[in-house]
Amino acid sequence: MKVDVSIVGATGYAGSELLRILVSHPYVRHITAASHSHVGKQFSSQYPNLRYIYDEQCAASRIPELAASSDVLFLSLPHGIATTELTASVIDRCKVIDLSADFRMKDADVYEKWYKTDHGGRAILEQAVYGLCELHRCEIARAAFIANPGCYTTCSILTLAPLLQAHLIDERSIIIDAKSGVSGAGRNEKLDSLFCECNETIKAYGVGTHRHIPEIEEQLSMVAGKNITVSFAAHLVPMNRGILATCYANLAPHADAKAIDAAFKDSYGNERFIRLLGNGVLPETRWVKGSNFCDIGYVLDTRNSRIVVCGAIDNLVKGAAGQAVQNMNIVCGFAEDCGLEAIPAFPM
């Protein structure tokens, strides 16, 4: 069975990446690219890499109308919009995959605290399933409404979850030092994203206040079966794509390389999109660029009884659009890697 899909917010980086992946998906029949600011304009005029591949005009972002003509509706919008425009009737009409942060957290009060805005979608919040495929595959398969995870969160959670699940680290000692390429800030014009502002420099931001912190903590707490808090620092790096999460934690007394390897293998040994590099090999963002892979490796700092474990993803693919397509594949019953077989280009 082939599906018709619509992408609301198609002209942003994540939305355009969704379209780039979906035009090659064997079970996608038609794609409607919807935009607020480019209605009536040819999509390929905004993204010339898709010239002669997808030259349709951008439709208006009317969510109820798009839902009525779609099997799957992707929302790639800034936070705060889906909470007011998404309704139960929309979810009844089609599968909805929301790439914003609006429905990722189960507690609307936590969302309002961190995002400094009212949550207008409390009535449908309980219907949202957190779309981290490797952790919630069974729930996703039964879902009509999926909250696609954030990029920092995807990388951080996948990197740490097996260690917490196997009780190999002291959960009170977790530090996440994460770095992102500039595309993570979106396509809108921002002073901090200008070439002269971000080239030839690296800077920390959102230390202790980054909006992905409660999302990370909520999911890691579910894995650990207890309340988890982390120290999280984000950094902007002068590259287009990529997330590298370097995570530090104190080792449990019984933890060693054999136990750590077993924990990662138990969690991810059969996962298509997680590549385990093992002890002593640390990933690089260029190894996953343009792909849906998450690479994970670690080093044991035995002198300090700590582990340093690193995860790397492409923030626009596994951290956004690729994971959204992976969620679509699960919920529609397609092979999970359909449309996601791209191998990272190297060098790039």
Give an overview in words.
α1 (13-22) crosses α13, α8 packs parallel to α13 and α9 (151-165) packs parallel to α11. The chain has 2 domains: 3-127, NAD(P)-binding Rossmann-like Domain (Rossmann fold), CATH 3.40.50; 152-313, Dihydrodipicolinate Reductase, domain 2 (2-Layer Sandwich), CATH 3.30.360. The chain is an alpha/beta fold and 348 residues long. The two termini are 36 Å apart. Strands 8-9-7-10-13-12-11 form a 7-stranded mixed sheet. A 6-stranded parallel sheet has the order 2-1-3-4-6-5. 32% of the residues lie in helices and 20% in strands.
Unreliably modeled segments: none
> CATH top level of the largest domain?
Alpha Beta
Shape verdict:
globular
Query: What composes the largest sheet?
Result: 7 strands, mixed
* H-E order: EHEHHEHHEHHEHEHEHEHEEHEEEH
Number of extended strands: 13
Helix content range: 25-40%
The N- to C-terminal Cα distance equals 36 Å
CATH topology of the largest domain: Dihydrodipicolinate Reductase, domain 2
CATH-defined superfamily of the largest domain:
Dihydrodipicolinate Reductase, domain 2
Rounded radius of gyration (Å): 20 Å
User: Numbering strands along the chain, what is their spatial order in the largest sheet?
Assistant: 8-9-7-10-13-12-11
Q: Which strand-content bin applies to the residues? A: 15-25%
Label the structural class.
Answer: alpha/beta
Average per-residue pLDDT, rounded, comes to 95
Number of domains: 2
Q: What is the annotated CATH architecture of the largest domain?
A: 2-Layer Sandwich
Tally of helical runs: 13
